[in-house]
Design brief:
The protein is an alpha/beta fold and 129 residues long. The chain has six helices and four strands; from the N terminus they run αβαβαβααβα. Strands 1-2-3-4 form a four-stranded parallel beta sheet, sandwiched between helices. The two termini are 15 Å apart.
Length: 129
């Protein structure tokens, strides 16, 4: 593989998951489902997660189901994910901020958070080098 092919391969390994406009539980389910699909491919990847505006009182499935799904997903993320860049509004709740910044402990891979999509994409690309 020459340098050009290597750059193209790295570029394909950065995935974007757009959950903007979705209610929080649906956004979380979409992110988990998409990350599961990426981890199941068993190739290195990074992902830029475009998160929705926070809701005052999210509805939907209990958080315990999403936590269980994340625990099941973590080994695949640890093995194949090189990083998750969360692009979120500035006014997210403290609970969501802690989850985003928990990195290896919760997600099994490095994480970052930003309000700038371009910065999230650049960080994700940099993790694939």
């Amino acid at each position: 593989m020459d340098a050009r092919e290597a750059r193209e391969a790295r570029g394909r390994a950065v995935h974007e998951i757009d959950a903007t406009g979705l209610p929080t539980p649906e956004a979380q389910d979409l992110v988990l489902r998409e990350l599961r699909g990426l981890a199941d491919r068993a190739v290195p990847f990074t992902a830029v997660l475009l998160m929705p505006e926070p809701e005052e009182r999210p509805t939907g499935a209990p958080a315990t189901e999403r936590i269980r799904a994340l625990k099941e997903l973590r080994p695949g993320l640890t093995a194949h994910c090189r990083g998750l860049a969360f692009v979120a509004p500035a006014h997210i709740t403290a609970e969501r901020a802690r989850a985003i910044h928990s990195g290896d402990k919760l997600w099994g891979c490095p994480t970052t958070a930003t309000q700038d999509v371009a910065a999230g994409r650049a960080w994700a690309r940099g993790r694939m080098v």
